[in-house]
Amino acid sequence: DTQISVKPTQLGLDQDIAVCRRNLDRIIERTEARNNFLWIDMESSPYVDPTLDLYRYGRSKTSKIGVAIQAYLYRSMKDVESLIPKGCAIRVVKGAYLEPDHVAYPRKADVDENFFKLCVRLLQPDALASGCLVHIGTHDMVLVNRLKTWIAANGVPSSEYEFAMLYGIRRPDQQALASEGQRLRVLIS
Length: 189
Prior knowledge:
By secondary structure, the protein is an alpha/beta fold. The protein has helices at residues 17-33, 48-59, 76-83, 108-122, 125-129, 141-153, 171-179; strands at 3-6, 37-40, 65-70, 89-93, 133-137, 161-166, 184-187.
């Protein structure tokens, strides 16, 4: 049960969109052949639209593909709303690129609140009915616990979401989540 993630620039997004799509097609072909899953990572803000276009291209070919959405960007809720009707798989992450204040929330508290709102939106009945899958990509245990409380209070089935954390970071918390029966995907760079 292994999944892979790629950055669009690794596929050639900056050089030639046709080459990038061909490279994505090759990975999709392998993903399908192995009954696996492919994630497209999100890079800095100038790449959001081209990455979402690439994701939509890939999604038209397979349902075994997801995309990362960064909670620190002001635009992310709008992007999520555009993806919900397509039943998309979305990994919500906080965001790691240095962005200007007119593009991204400068305060951690605002990023955390938007992260929570994005996850809650993706766990709403209409989003789940459309086929959305949510990967909750954070090591912030305050946020993890807040979401676990909301999920339990709203009866969201565990098949609709997974937690996602990087290998080697907060290992005891990862083990605790797994021992609670939470679905957890460990990401290896």
